[in-house]
Amino acid sequence: MGKQVVSSSSEEDAERSSGSEQPSIFSDEVIGEKFKKIKKQRRSGRKMVIQESSDDEETTEHYYLEERAADKKKKSHRPKKNKENKKQKTATKYREKIPQRTWDLLAQTTFWDTIDVFKNEKLTETQLRKHELDFELIMKHYNKEKNKFIFGEIEAEITVDDVYSLFHISTEGEVVDLKNKPPRNKWPDSKYFEKGRISKDNIKRPQLETELSAELNKPEKNQDAEKIASLILMYLLAVFFFSRSGTHLDWELIIICENLEEINKYNWSKMVLDFLKDGIYKYIRDKAQIYSGCILLVVYWFLEKTRVRNKITGNETSTPRFVRWSIKEIFDREDVQKKPTFLEVKFYI
Q: Could you tell me which residues come within 8 angstroms of residue 65 by beta carbon, excluding any fewer than 6 positions away?
């Protein structure tokens, strides 16, 4: 028996209208129970090719899914969704819901200059999106014995003053040792999170987002401006300054953020730098896959000291200084392929 192809429902309708008693190739009498699923696939509009052997003893099926190929083709021509615009719309939506009282409270904190960059969109999502290969290339020049970056004959390290110039956060005051955590029974109480609902000594970013969203979605008269300010600070620390794998924030920092009146009494520049150095040390020691700490500090510091890229047009003299740089694809990909392990850079100390 030769090959028979059924590619459309029109041929099937024509066969039915002819009144022929010959059983259909797709009937149970010819194919058997095991090909029932093929019938279902045919009915769903998928094209099939059925080929029978010449001795009628064995029937072999060859079918492909025309729909899948068509869908794939459609997707390839479909314009890609602009994730950056979606994020910006979401951020704008939340910004519009933040009460002025919250902005006034945040403006009194040492983090205001950094917050103001995001509030007024002085950098775009694209300019803030780092490339992992760029960061890894910079980190290849970190010497764990000297705790410095070494580029040829140049030795350099990130200082507290560097942190201040980039982000304008305080350089004087108390320093909280985040490495030595108190036992759970000695945790101070939180205004906004119950210890009984926390499985570890931290709050994860989704929990912060949920709490912040819930507060912002309340009617304006019912919003707690101070709570919103505290949650925004927690979120900033969790994703920017004290980032960890899984993006969570230590309990000690949560308590500090809840006390807005005393948040400026800490040496945040030193705490951010110490946290980063500890993260780098653990990454090298434990051969971890993810760095902990403000890794954007490394990238912005590198740009400030080497100027391997031009500053953003219009932001050349802006402060804090991280606003001057776009961290999207710092290095040319072809140059990296030629010299993947060494950067010839000039430092401006």
A: 41, 46, 47
pTM above 0.70, yes or no: yes
Contacts of 325 by beta carbon, 8 Å cutoff, 6+ apart: 127, 300, 303, 304, 309, 311, 312
Q: What is the pLDDT of residues 225-276, one digit of tens each?
A: 999 999 999 999 999 999 876 578 888 999 999 999 999 999 999 999 999 9
At 48, give phi and psi (nearest 5°). -135, 150
- Cα gap 191→279, rounded to integer Å: 29
Is 224 within 8 Å of 215 (Cβ atoms)? Answer: yes
pLDDT (tens digit, 9 = 90+) per residue, 272-296? Answer: 999 999 999 888 887 767 788 999 9
Tokens 């008693």 correspond to 21
Q: How far is CA 68 from CA 64, 73, 75, 340, in A?
A: 9, 9, 10, 40
**Residues 209 and 217 sit within 8 Å (Cβ to Cβ):** no
Which two three-digit tokens encode residue 29?
């009498």
